[in-house]
UniProtKB/TrEMBL annotation:
Pfam families: MFS_1. The chain crosses the membrane at residues 21-46, 58-75, 87-105, 117-137, 149-168, 174-196, 208-227, 239-259, 280-301, 313-330, 342-361, 367-394, 415-438, 464-482. It is found in: Cell membrane. This is MFS transporter. It comes from the Bacteria. Its main location: membrane. Keywords: Antibiotic resistance, Cell membrane, Membrane, Transmembrane, Transmembrane helix, Transport. The keyword Transferase does not apply. The keyword Phosphoprotein does not apply. It comes from Streptomyces boetiae. Coiled coil: none annotated. InterPro entries: EmrB-like, MFS, MFS_dom, MFS_trans_sf, Sugar_transporter_CS.
Length: 508
């Protein structure tokens, strides 16, 4: 990599190329987020082409989730130690190579391996991207705009993945859901090497906390796998219970180790701060509801209403538009004027209203009368809440801890997604079984198709009710826990306990 020369400009000086840097940071974030859903649409075609059994097909999703979720904290701290720019480029390159492997897969082992490698490098890339944003944008108003764009991409990426995955699968081939990443990766690497410079003072010079890294990674893998297994098996199934109990034990040991070590992987002050902790918690709860909704609506539109993959992707566009408006217009304009809690709580409440509207789902629900308006409310609410939530979650931490604080944002989202998919899917499945059992005296799979379809929709509606209550809880927690007055000055702490001191930037 080209040498980087540190300068010490006047206090408060800003990186001249920070807005150009944002383009490539946002591009990388979009890759990571949409990759969680783009492959979902292509999964039936890929598994048929490669001869993957129904019992094993979930590993295409699970391999990515385990590697990504399990290594996020480790990846965040590695970015702090190596330098975020270096970690960002390595993460991009590895993600691109893993995508090429997936697109060229000739058997299920190659496909599983590529997805796991995408997760590994994504766990390095995602926290490096967010922490670069954190250390490059220290002026309050500029930080609001940058996080508005970032928040819109983070929120809308999953829906964009559904649209892109559907288009590529329908008009080209499932392999292009992997190959499409490569040109974006190449552009992001070239742009990063040309315009991104990292403040030297933001580098963490301590040693890696190996016991903490091992405990955190194993604990998070056990947690994500436990919920993934519960979705396909049962909550009382032996390995599900073993994984979830192991996760609790390992993460408890991790907290004990972090409290005693001199150079912790995750300084506990990052999560015990009332405002950051409240942000992580409320964002995680919101993601539980959102992931359940994506699951239910995708199955409803394709399986019940007969939408094609492309039409399904377009059907999510009202939510994408709402998120972009909520994040880049409402959140960005208000975040420097009102407390973050006064944006996050109402934002989650508006999203809950959208979810409440979707509880009316039935076999013939009007798309334009109910589904589209509900998505607009969800998008506006989530976009408005995500923007200050992500900014607050990385605010006023030492620059040397920006990577691991950023990783915690991704951890809350990843764990929330795993819980949401497993928990709400279980609730929906139970409601479907009860509905069919009340109308058909016999095995569920032998029930008439109209009864099974109606039972599935009833299950979706029951799951959405739970998602509504979870969003209400997220709104309440944001209102109660988050009392920060917001960032009206520089947002990243510059060493020690001092908060708000500007960071020197790199010369170009």
């Amino acid at each position: 990599m080209p040498p980087e020369t540190t300068v010490s400009p006047a206090r408060g000086a800003l990186d001249a190329k920070r807005w150009q840097a944002l383009v490539f940071i946002a591009m990388a974030q979009l890759l990571v987020v949409l990759d969680g859903t783009i492959v979902t649409i292509a999964l039936p075609s890929a598994t048929t082409d490669l001869g993957i059994s129904d019992g094993n097909r979930q590993w295409v999703i699970t391999a990515y989730a385990l590697a990504f979720g399990g290594l996020l904290l480790f990846g965040g701290r590695v970015a702090d130690l190596w330098g975020r720019r270096r970690a960002f480029v390595i993460g991009l390159a590895g993600f691109g190579l893993a995508s090429a492997l997936g697109g060229a897969a000739q058997n299920e082992l190659m496909l599983y391996s590529s997805r796991a490698l995408q997760g590994v490098f994504g766990a390095l890339l995602a926290p490096a991207a967010l922490s670069l944003l954190t250390v490059l944008f220290t002026d309050a108003k500029e930080r609001a705009k940058a996080f508005g764009i970032y928040g819109a991409i983070a929120g809308a990426g999953a829906a964009i993945g559904l649209l892109l995955g559907g288009a590529l699968t329908d008009y080209l081939d499932w392999r292009w859901t992997f190959f499409v990443n490569i040109p974006f990766v190449a552009a992001a690497i070239i742009g990063t090497l040309m315009v991104i410079r990292e403040p030297e003072e933001a580098r963490n010079r301590s040693s890696l906390d190996v016991p903490g890294a091992v405990l955190a990674s194993l604990g998070l893998v056990a947690l994500v796998y436990g919920f993934a297994r519960a979705e396909h098996e049962d909550w009382t199934e032996t390995w599900t219970v073993v994984m979830l109990v192991s996760a609790v034990v390992l993460l408890a040991l991790f907290v004990v180790v972090e409290a005693r070590t001199k150079a912790p992987l995750l300084p506990l002050s990052v999560i015990t701060d009332r405002n950051r902790g409240g942000s992580y918690l409320s964002l995680g709860l919101a993601i539980i509801g959102m992931f359940g909704l994506f699951l239910f609506l995708t199955i409803y539109l394709q399986g019940i209403r007969g939408y094609s993959p492309v039409r399904t992707g377009f059907a999510f566009m009202p939510m994408v538009v709402g998120m972009i408006i909520g994040s880049t217009q409402i959140g960005t304009r208000l975040v420097t004027r009102v407390r973050p809690g006064l944006l996050m709580a109402p934002g989650f409440a508006v999203a809950a209203l959208g979810m409440l509207l979707l509880t009316q789902l039935d076999m013939n629900t009007s798309y334009w009368g109910i589904i589209a308006p509900a998505q607009v409310l969800l998008g506006l609410g989530m976009g408005t809440a995500f923007m200050p939530g992500m900014s607050l979650a990385t605010e006023r931490v030492k620059p040397t801890d920006a990577g691991v604080a950023s990783a915690m944002v991704n951890v809350s989202q990843q764990v929330g997604g795993a819980i949401g998919t497993a928990l709400l899917n279980t609730i929906a499945a139970s409601a479907t079984t009860a509905y069919i059992g009340a109308r058909f005296d016999g095995p569920e799979e032998l029930a008439p198709l109209p009864v099974r379809a109606a039972g599935a929709v009833d299950g979706f509606a029951q799951g959405i009710w739970w998602a509504f209550f979870i969003l209400v809880i997220a709104a309440v927690l944001a209102a109660v826990l988050i009392n920060s007055k917001g960032s009206h000055g520089p947002a990243v702490s510059q060493g020690g306990d001092e908060e708000g001191a500007p960071i020197p930037v790199m010369a170009h």
